[in-house]
Design brief:
single chain, about 450 residues, alpha/beta, nine-stranded mixed sheet, six-stranded mixed sheet, 16 helices, 17 strands, about 35% helix
């Protein structure tokens, strides 16, 4: 092992701590310049199985749940919990968890990996299980067209050893199609119930046509976005049979509960996470641990209960004594899903939506017009909306055309000032703070400076 990169990374991590920086990527970025094989060399020291989670939405929550369940069963786990999911972030977390000789004393590894970085890092990690959550259009100016990303992911999966396991979301057509003609042990998870929330296909719906014959998919049921129970009437291709299926689903303000059907078992699941989309995150994390052999008692009693979202991912907190929920929005389906979750809570709302257009966010904010805000407005009780960030005016215009009374919309470009303001117009409403990537950083900075805790 080339130790120079590890040593450099350690000193950069120390420097970041002394200067008050997070240092989730810089140490790994510099270390990899000196030691390109650093990830492969360190990760070999993980004693047991390694898991990789990728996809557009849900990978941070899913990987966090998998890691928390493993920890609750007594395993020592290395996990890039902060969500730094590119090469540099994965290298950083490995350096942090190893000694100066690159030795890592961990039983398991759980790694969230950016979709576009899968070809770069997958073989180095050599995971036992790869979980793919979904594929949605996201930052086209950075990632390119969706089919390009999917092709890269599939090519990387084709290079895995044949005994590797692939756990795919069957309800999302792009993701399910990864399993076609793939020489791995492929398993699928999805929803067996009808949710009966009246959702229709999102305006941002991508996979309209069967990849086999080009026929148009027909949906028996839609769960959210383009996820549902679908089939092609032309050639018969349909949603794959489910190895793990969710049924008896209940969504409340306090969380979600459902049963997972696996072989001849019905497993009762309860989580404090909200929203229909978290059924998939929880289900895939439970399924992964079942496949890893984690006892069910640890999965249900400890792991799911102990999991706490990272800052800004369904984070519950208080702003000047008023209850608030903070959730990252970064693409049309993610925004839609968050709005559906707020609609399911069925309480009066005050919204603070913060949109920036920095490089990490994607410069093009036209995606805001692909979000089905009209449907949300027609069902939700919205008392007040503050728009903020560099593109606050664009967001305010979008809300106006969605049918929100302009008198209820206030533009405050400073995110700090907007966070100070929203509690002053809140009585019994739930505050929902919805920032995109770099806006979330400003929200988190505000929270730390005010001593606000989840």
């Amino acid at each position: 092992m080339d130790l120079l990169g590890v040593v450099l990374g350690k000193f950069v991590i120390l420097g970041c701590k002394l200067t008050g920086k997070n240092g989730t990527s810089l140490p790994g970025k510099l270390a990899l310049k000196i030691s390109p094989n650093l990830i492969k060399d360190i990760v070999k020291g993980v004693k047991n199985e390694k898991v990789v989670v990728t996809g557009t939405n849900g990978k941070t929550t899913t990987s966090g749940l998998i890691a928390e369940i493993l920890k609750s069963s007594g395993k020592k786990v290395v996990h890039n919990r902060e969500g730094a999911n590119m090469l540099s972030g994965i290298a950083t977390v490995l350096i942090k968890n190893s000694d100066f000789f690159g030795n890592i004393n961990k039983d398991a590894g759980v790694f969230e990996v950016d979709e576009a970085n899968m070809p770069l890092v997958l073989n180095d990690i050599n995971p036992k299980i790869v979980v793919v959550t979904n594929f949605f259009r996201d930052q086209l100016d950075r990632y390119g067209e969706l089919d390009i990303t999917i092709k890269k992911v599939k090519e990387s999966l084709n290079r895995l050893p044949k005994d590797s396991m692939l756990l795919l979301n069957a309800d999302e057509p792009f993701t399910a199609s990864l399993g076609d003609d793939l020489n791995l042990n492929v398993m699928y998870y999805g929803i067996l119930d009808k949710l009966n929330y009246g959702y229709s296909l999102s305006p941002a719906f991508e996979q309209k046509y069967c990849p086999v014959c080009g026929g148009k998919y027909v949906y028996k049921d839609v769960f959210y976005g383009q996820l549902g129970d679908y089939y092609c009437p032309k050639c018969g291709k349909s949603r794959p049979n489910l190895d793990f299926g969710a049924l008896d689903i209940k969504l409340t303000e306090d969380g979600i509960s459902f049963k997972i059907k696996y072989k001849d078992k019905l497993i009762n699941i309860k989580s404090h996470l909200n929203g229909a989309y978290n059924i998939y995150n929880v289900m895939s994390s439970v399924a992964t641990n079942i496949l890893l052999g984690t006892p069910l008692s640890y999965i249900i009693q400890a792991g799911l209960n102990n999991y706490r979202p990272i800052a800004g991912r369904l984070q519950t907190t208080y702003l000047k004594g008023k209850k608030a929920i903070i959730n990252l929005i970064k693409n049309p389906i993610g925004f839609d899903s968050t709005l559906n979750m707020l609609r399911e809570i069925n309480k009066p709302l005050n919204l603070l939506i913060a949109i920036n257009d920095n490089y990490a966010d994607g410069r093009d904010v036209s995606w805001l017009w692909d979000v089905d805000i009209e449907n949300f407005v027609s069902h939700a009780k919205i008392n007040y909306v503050v728009t903020s960030g560099l593109r606050a005016e664009d967001m305010a215009l979008r809300l106006k055309y969605a049918g929100i009374d302009p008198k209820k919309i206030k533009i405050i470009n400073s995110i700090e000032n907007a966070l100070d303001y929203i509690p002053t117009v809140t009585n019994e409403e739930l505050i929902a703070v919805l920032p995109n990537y770099t806006s979330l950083h400003e929200v988190n900075t505000y929270m730390k400076s005010r001593g606000v805790k989840a």
